[in-house]
């Protein structure tokens, strides 16, 4: 262990409470508990649970989940999950790299992706199951007439502050400065 800490603790700051929240959401969506004998990151490592999650959110989005066949097949599950996330609407900047999960290099990023998936589920009205994380903000576009826009340009908003009745009279703090000439 170079650096004195296991690899899974080095990259990305893990938040155990977020991992528990993500795990409970996944369990609620897929209707199964994580294996009791495996920690969070190892339960997700083969990609099977992640594929089940995507297929519950959008049935049929992943056509073949590899439940056996070794490392190559399990890595394929992770890749299929990532592709399905993009199709579902998760921004690709929120996706973890396959090695983040497979080699357990950045489990915090894996959890972040799960939260991004949970937020994206809000945008799918067909999904009626549980959600994860806060509802994303929606655009609230407003249209103003030219008259209203012109009138708004003449107003100085109070966010800019006001100087009514502003003066420095009555302010006397600190010692006054003495200037001595001709020394």
Give the strand content.
Answer: under 5%
**Do you know the CATH architecture of the domain at 10-122?**
Orthogonal Bundle
Tell me, what is the CATH class of the domain at 10-122? Mainly Alpha
| Arithmetic mean of pLDDT | 85
Low-confidence stretches: 1-10
Domain Calponin-homology (CH): 16-121
Family: Belongs to the calponin family.
GO cellular component, one term: actin cytoskeleton
GO molecular function: actin filament binding
Description:
One of its GO terms (molecular function) is actin filament binding. Pfam families: Calponin, CH. The chain is mostly helical. The protein has a domain at 10-122: Orthogonal Bundle (Actin-binding Protein, T-fimbrin, domain 1), CATH 1.10.418. Helices cover 44% and strands 0% of the residues. The protein has eight helices and no strands. It has helices at residues 7-10, 16-30, 40-45, 48-57, 71-88, 98-102, 107-120, 146-153. Helix 2 crosses helix 7 and helix 4 packs parallel to helix 5 (71-88). The N and C termini lie far apart (72 Å). Residues 1-10 have low confidence and may be disordered.
């Amino acid at each position: 262990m170079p650096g004195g800490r296991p690899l899974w603790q080095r990259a990305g700051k893990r938040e155990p409470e977020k991992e528990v929240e993500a795990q409970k959401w996944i369990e609620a969506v897929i209707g199964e508990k994580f294996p009791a004998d495996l920690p969070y990151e190892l339960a997700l490592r083969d990609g099977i649970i992640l594929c089940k999650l995507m297929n519950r959110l959008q049935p049929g989005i992943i056509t073949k989940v590899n439940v056996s066949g070794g490392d190559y097949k399990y890595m394929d599950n992770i890749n299929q999950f990532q592709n399905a996330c993009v199709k579902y609407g998760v921004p690709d900047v929120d996706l973890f790299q396959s090695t983040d999960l497979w080699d357990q290099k950045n489990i915090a990023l894996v959890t972040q992706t799960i939260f991004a998936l949970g937020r994206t589920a809000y945008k799918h009205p067909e999904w009626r199951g549980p959600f994860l994380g806060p509802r994303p903000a929606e655009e609230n576009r407003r249209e103003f007439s030219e008259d209203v826009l012109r009138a708004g340009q003449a107003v100085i908003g109070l966010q800019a502050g006001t100087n009514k009745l502003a003066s420095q009279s009555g302010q006397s703090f600190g010692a006054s400065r003495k200037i001595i000439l001709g020394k």
